[in-house]
Amino acid sequence: MGVLRIGRLCLKELREILRDRRTTITLVLMPLLAYPILAMAFQELLITSVQPTNPAQVVIGVDSDEVQIELLKFLAIGQNLVQPPRVTDGAEEQAEGPSENDPPPVLVRINPDLEEMISQGLADVAVRLFDSRAPDIQGLGRPLRCELILRQGSDVSEFAADFIEKRLEAINDDWVTQLLAGRMEVPTRSRRTEIASSDGSFALTAFIPLILILMTITGAVYPAIDLTAGERERGTLETLMAAPVPRLGLLWAKYVAVVTVAMLTAGANLAAMCITLMVTGMGPLVFGESGLTLALVDQVFILLMLFAAFYSAILLAVTSFARSFKEAQAYLIPLMLMTLVPGMFSTMPGLEFNGTMAVTPLLNIVLLARDLLEGGVNPMLAMVTCLSTLIYAVAAVAFASRIFGTDAILYGSQATWSDLLRRPRHSSDSATVSGAMLYLAVTFPIYFLLANGLQRLGGASLTVRLALAAVVTAFVFGALPLGAATLQRLRLKTTFQLRRPGLLAVLGAIVLGLSLWPLAHEIFLLNRFLGLQTLGEGQIEAARELLASLGNISPVVVLLTLAVVPAVFEEWFFRGYILTALRGSLPAFSSVLVSAVLFGLFHVVASSILATERFLPSTFLGLLLGMVCLRTGSVLPGMLLHGCHNGLLLMIAHYRDELIARGWGIEEQSHMPVALLGGAGAAVLVGLTLVFLSKARRSDK
User: Which residues, including other chains, have CB under 8 Å from residue 492's CB and lie 6 or more apart?
Assistant: First the structure.
C-alpha cells in the first residue's frame, strides 16, 4: 500500500508540473528555437574558421636572419627543380600574368620563439635548423637539417609544410641522380612536429555536451523550485506533510517529477540537435564522415539521463532549503555559474580525461560525452564516471531528505546549513540510509584516487605497495566509517554488528570460507560466457605475473595485506555500517542484495583496470556474507569467512608450483572437476546449516 500511495503521489506531482506553461516553454519551444539559431551560428563559425587549402601566400617563421637566408636559398633551388622557368630561344618567356600553377609567394617572419609563433597563428609553418657539416653541395654551403613545426589540425599549416618539403625533396632527388661513388649523404632532411593551437580554433564536439547539459539544466530548474520552495510559499506544504506518507516518500515523488521533466527536456534537445544537423548537413563536418550515428545518439542520451538524475537531486537539495521562490532563485544563480566552470573546461584543447576527473561531479559527464563524440572512450573511466555520478545522485537525494519539510524550515525559523551538520543530541543504533549514502558518496572518490595513486608508485617494491594498499583499505573502510559513526552518535556495537557469535556460527563461517572458491571460479567463467569481459590478454598476463611475484614475498605479509586487512575492514563497512543502515528502511533480502551489489561494483573499479569479470563472483560472495551477518547478528563470522576465502586463494597462488609438482595443478580457465564441485557444494550446505543452527540456538536463549 505504501508503494502504491507513493506511486500515485508521483503521478500527481508530474501532472501538476507538466500542466504549467513555463514547463512547456522550456520543454518544447526552447529546443525548436535554440538549435536552428545555434546551427546558423556554427555554420558561420565554420565558414570563417575553415581556411582555403591553397592560400594566397605561405608565411614561414624562422628564428634568425641567417636561417632566413639559408632557407630561402634552398627553396629557390628547389623551386627551379619543381617548376623550371619557361625558356624560349635562350630567353625566359615573359608570362602575361600569374598562372594558376604558379606557387604562392613566400613571406618569412622572424621570432626567436617558434612554438609561440605557430600557436598564435603568426606563421603557417616554422622552420628550425640544426647544425651540421658544411660540404659544398650545389653551392648551398652545407646540408640542411630542419624541423617543421605545424599548427595541429590546420589545413593551411599542412599546405605550408608540404610546400617546403616538396622543394627540399626535389633537391634530394636531383642530388641522388648525380651521386658519385662514395657520396652517401643527401643535402636536405626534415621532420615534422605538431603543436596545439591557441589562436581560438576548437572542435565543435567539445561544445555539444556543454550545450546539451545546459539545456537539460534549464528544464529541471523550474520544476525543482516550484515543487519545493513554491509549495512552501503557497502554504500547501503543511497539508502535504500531514499526508500518511514518509517524508522521504514525499521527496521521492518530487524527485521523480523533476527527473522526468529533465529527461524529457534532454530528449527534446537531443532530438532537435540531431534533426538540425541532418537538415543543415553539418553532421559530417562535426562528427566526421560517419556523421551522428544512432548508436552514438543512444549513448549520449544515456549520459544525459545520468546527468539529469544527478543534477535534479542537487537542485532539490538546494531548493528544499529555500523558504520562497525568490530565495530559491537566489540560491540557484551561483549554482548555475558554478556549473559553467567545469563545462567550459571541456573546451580546453589538450585536456585529458583521467581518473581524478572521472570522480569530479559534472566535469566527468562533460568530458566523457566529449570523448564519446570524438570516438575515444576509456571503459574504466566511463564505468567510474557512471558509478560515481549515481552515488552522488543518491547522496544528494539523501541530503535533501534531511532538509525537506523539517520543522525549522517549515515554520519559517532562521535555520542555517550548519544545522544539518550538527551532531545529534541522542545516540542511535544504526546510521540512517541518507547518512550512509552521504558517506558512500565521500568514500568512493577518496578510495578511487588513493588506490589509483598507489598504481603510480612504480619505484616502490611490491611489499611496500601491498602495505600501503592495506593502509588505504583500513583508513577508508575502517577509520572513516568509525569517525562518521562517532560524529553521528551511533552505538558501535549495533552499528557495526559487533556481537559475539556462537561456536556453530564460527565453524560454519570457516567451512564456507574454505569451500566457496570452486563455485566462485565457475561463476567467474559464467561472467565470461555472458560477455561481461573487459580484461585483455595483456592485462590477464600482467595479473598472472603479479600472482607469480607473490611467491617471492613472505606468506605472512601476503595473508596480512591481501586477506586479513581487506576481510576485516570491508566487512566492517559493507556488512556493518552499510547493511545495518539499509535494514532500517528495507526488507531483509533487499538490504542484503543492495549491499552485495555495492560490494560487487566496488571490486569492479577497485583498481586502475575495469574488471567486470569480478562483478558476479564478488556479488555472490556479498550475498552469502550478508545472509551470514543477518542470521548470526554479528559481522565477525563474515570477517572470518571472508578472510579464509581470500587466504586460501592466495596460498594456492603462492604455492602454485609446489601444487603442480604434486599433481594438484588445474588448467587455467578450465572448469573445475565435477567431483571437486560436488564436494564444494556439499561443504557449502554444511556451512550454511551450521550458521542457521547457530541462529536458532541464539534465538532460543
Answer: 482, 485, 498
Which pLDDT score, from 0 to 100, does residue 417 have?
44
List Cβ neighbours of 585 (8 Å cut-off, separation of 6 or more): 248, 432, 433
Burial of 370 from C-beta contacts in 10 A (0-12 / 13-18 / 19+):
buried
| Neighbouring residues of 399: CB distance < 8 A, sequence distance ≥ 6 | 317, 420, 434, 438
| Cell triple for 562 | 591481501
* φ, ψ dihedrals at 150, nearest 5°: -110, 160
Closest CA to 298 of 328, 329, 266, 320: 266
* One-letter amino acid for residue 671 of the chain: H
User: Strands 106-110 and 58-62: what pairing?
Assistant: parallel
Sequence-ordered list of residues with C-beta below 8 angstroms from that of 498, at least 6 positions apart, any chain = 492, 576, 634, 635, 636
Nearest Cα to 367, choosing from 449, 378, 309?
378
Q: Which three three-digit cell numbers place residue 33?
A: 528555437
Three-state SS at 530: coil
Mean pLDDT of the chain: 76
**Which of 527-536, 567-576, 681-690 is predicted with the least confidence, judged by mean pLDDT?**
527-536
Find all residues with CB under 8 Å of 248, minimum gap 6, and list them: 401, 433, 434, 585
What's the confidence (pLDDT) of residue 202? Answer: 44
Whole-angstrom distance, CA of residue 38 vs CA of residue 282: 12
Q: What is the pLDDT of residues 486-520, one digit of tens each?
A: 888 899 999 999 988 889 999 999 999 999 988 88
Instruction: Give CA 490 to chain center in angstroms.
Output: 34
User: Does residue 154 contact residue 147 with C-beta atoms inside 8 Å?
Assistant: no
Which of 259, 245, 75 is closest to 164 using CA atoms?
A: 75
Grid coordinates representing 271? Answer: 532530438
Question: What is the helix, strand, coil percentage profile of the chain, to 5?
Answer: 70, 5, 25
Burial 140-150 (b: 16+ CB within 10 A, else e): beebbbbebbb
Average pLDDT on 454-466 reads 76
Long-range contacts of 590-599 (CB under 8 A, 24+ apart): 591/626, 592/623, 592/626, 592/627, 592/630, 593/623, 593/626, 595/622, 595/626, 596/620, 596/622, 596/623, 596/625, 596/626, 597/622, 598/440, 598/574, 598/622, 599/570, 599/574, 599/625
Rounded CA gap, 222 and 17, in Å?
A: 9
Cα torsion through 319, 321, 324, 325, rounded to 10: -10
Q: Residue 580: name the closest of 567, 563, 592 by CA.
A: 592
Q: How confident is the model at residue 335 (pLDDT cuts 50, 70, 90)?
A: confident
Q: What is the mean pLDDT of residues 193-198?
A: 57
CA distances from 409 to 159, 225, 258 (A): 67, 15, 21
**CA–CA gap between residue 381 and residue 392 (Å, rounded):** 16
* CB atoms near residue 697 (< 10 Å): 12
Locate 280 and state its grid cell: 543543415
Alpha-carbon gap, residue 132 to 142, rounded angstroms: 7
Output DSSP code: residue 613: G
Q: How far is C-alpha 182 from the geometric centre of its chain's CA atoms?
A: 59
- Which residue in this structure is represented by grid cell 567545469? 342
CA-to-CA distance for 259 and 310, rounded, in angstroms? Answer: 9
- Provide the CATH topology of domain 58-84+103-195: D-Maltodextrin-Binding Protein; domain 2 (3.40.190)
User: Mean per-residue pLDDT for 295-300?
Assistant: 80
Confidence of residue 348 (pLDDT cuts 50, 70, 90): low
Domains of the chain, residue spans: 1-50+203-353, 58-84+103-195, 423-701
Query: Vertex 510, ends 522 and 520: CA angle to 5°?
Result: 10
